[in-house]
Automatic annotation (TrEMBL):
Catalyzes the reversible reaction in which hydroxymethyl group from 5,10-methylenetetrahydrofolate is transferred onto alpha-ketoisovalerate to form ketopantoate. It comes from Trichlorobacter thiogenes. It is an enzyme of class 2 (transferase). This is 3-methyl-2-oxobutanoate hydroxymethyltransferase. Homodecamer; pentamer of dimers. The gene is panB. Keywords: Cytoplasm, Magnesium, Metal-binding, Methyltransferase, Pantothenate biosynthesis, Transferase.
Amino acid sequence: RKKMTIPDMLLMKQEGRKVTVLTAYDYPTARLVDAGGVDAILVGDSAGVVFSGHENTLPVTMDEMLYHVKAVVRAKPKALVIADMPFMACQSGEIEALKNCGRMLQEGGAEAVKIEGGSNMARIIRAITEMDIPVMGHVGLTPQSVHRMGGYKVQGRKDQAERILEDAHAVQEAGAFAVVLEGVPAKLAARITEMLDIPTIGIGAGPACDGQVLVIHDILGLCEKYSPKFVKRYADLAPLITEAARQYVSEVKDGTFPTEEHSFS
Ligand code: KIV
Ligand code: NA
């Protein structure tokens, strides 16, 4: 398999080949999902929730994201590595945004960044893409906007639809190479996908998108707490892990482990 590049991803839309993206936050997971053949690995700020245990993604810092990005990059994946920009890394002006996005490539070794926001972030996205830092947009349900939205709710229903469409268009015009459409009605996602030249990567956005992205913990069944409607579980690892731990505890307690086989003479 050849190393995935930004131009390859644009070509995939033109040729009608679906783009597959999964998140990863560490070295072993990055190796495993890359072996599964994903086109891109998103080091998402969802790490704040599924890895660090926060309520939402707002507490995630640049330093935490860099730590995850570096671990993923060490897996040398064929997949494109995209670093998610945490809350407030790009919001307080172009200079700050450029510095932080630059760090993801220079220190982290990522190949692209992802920034939440539409028309409101277009000026900043333009500044970053003009400095040759590839940007993936993210519109619709943007989890960093949880307080404005009043929770994680589908965006772009009824009279909100045109605003989401404008956001997606603004992100493309600002130079983004792709855009995540999260939590929007399937019909709206289809309209946006048809309108844009850049690939749309959907999550809870229906089947018409040019690609799909999911959180790795969700598809592996590692987070037992909740499972949103848009997630499909491809494995159920949580009970396997608990059972392995339970067996280990039981065998140490009753003296079944370790035996001679696991000991040095
Ligand atoms: O942080 C994340 O994992 C994301 C994807 C779900 C799009 O932003
Ligand atoms: Na994110």
